[in-house]
Design brief:
With about 290 residues, this protein is α+β, with helices and mostly antiparallel strands. It contains 10 helices and 8 strands. The chain starts with 9 loop residues before the first helix and ends with a strand.
Length: about 290
């Protein structure tokens, strides 16, 4: 059987502090307001000092509003984290800025406005990804209770060689464009590197030394929790159509959103399957 509960407690692993959640909400709202203010100032052909002042003021006002909203509506992150569409929407606010960036790349508008829009889109995606991760982790803490029935060590999917190549290549390309005076392209490639690092930390591909918690899967009566070093997600049994070991993978089938674990990355996959079978709350076929 998968090992009994050991290591960091559920509380330490998934119960984010109110301060962390408040900062995530405040940071996200602040970034969005700052991006809008910066883009509007660029369209008004404002001076450099005005651009800086407007951006900082926008961030401060937005962060203050986000902090108040988080305090007055403490369940807001949980509401965001419950559905993938809500989580996607916080990142989707970057779409208008990406449209402006594309217009600048194709020469429809000035490169300076495109540069501001690209920087804004990048920061919104990073802040949105962070808020989405915090929200999902908050949902786990609000849904499961007590100790897990069992746990199993798990290694999130990663490609170390590809990661290293990209994290060297993209900044290098950015520096080459910057040295040639093409700042829009430089920021574009630099943004790709920043987004790759952000997604790697949230998805568990990267880990800063021994920070966070050891990745594992946790089986509860409510569902299966994928615990990454800095975040957690819940797969409810009600979402699962079939569970099976197939072609070297443990697969939880749920329509277009299957959850897959490579057998080599998971401790005792057959035993994990057996425990999952015993916890299914409705008629789910195990093959």
């Amino acid at each position: 059987m998968p090992r009994a509960r050991s290591g960091p407690s559920l509380e330490n692993a998934t119960n984010l502090s109110d301060e962390t959640v408040r900062r995530a909400v405040a940071g996200y709202v602040g970034v969005v307001v700052a991006a809008l203010a910066l883009t509007a100032a660029f369209t008004a052909d404002a001076s450099g000092l005005v651009l800086i002042g407007v951006t900082l003021t926008g961030f401060a006002l937005g962060a203050a509003a986000g902090s108040v909203a988080s305090s007055r509506f403490p369940t807001l992150p949980i509401q965001i984290g419950r559905t993938r569409y809500r989580r996607a929407s916080v990142i989707g606010l970057a779409a208008p800025f990406m449209a402006v960036t594309l217009a600048a790349i194709f020469g429809t508008i000035g490169s300076h406005l495109g540069l501001a829009a690209l920087a804004s889109a990048t920061v919104i995606i990073i802040a949105g990804h962070w808020l989405s991760s915090v929200s999902q982790t908050r949902v786990v803490a609000a849904t499961v209770s007590g100790e897990p029935i069992s746990t199993a060590r798990w290694q999130p999917p990663r490609s170390p060689v590809i990661d290293r190549v990209l994290l060297v290549l993209w900044p290098l390309i950015a520096l080459l464009y910057a040295s040639a005076g093409d700042w829009l392209s430089a920021v574009l490639w630099g943004s790709l590197a920043a987004l790759w690092v952000t997604s790697g930390l949230i998805e568990g591909r990267f880990r800063l030394s021994d920070t966070g918690v050891d990745p594992e899967i946790r089986i509860y009566e409510a569902g299966l929790v994928k615990q990454r070093p800095y975040s957690a997600t819940l797969i409810s049994w009600d979402e699962v159509d079939h569970v099976r070991l197939r072609e070297g993978e443990l697969v939880l089938e749920r329509g277009f959103f299957d959850v897959r674990f490579d057998e080599n990355s998971l401790e005792n996959p057959k035993n994990v399957l057996s425990v999952i079978d015993g916890q299914l709350s409705r008629d789910v076929r195990v093959v």
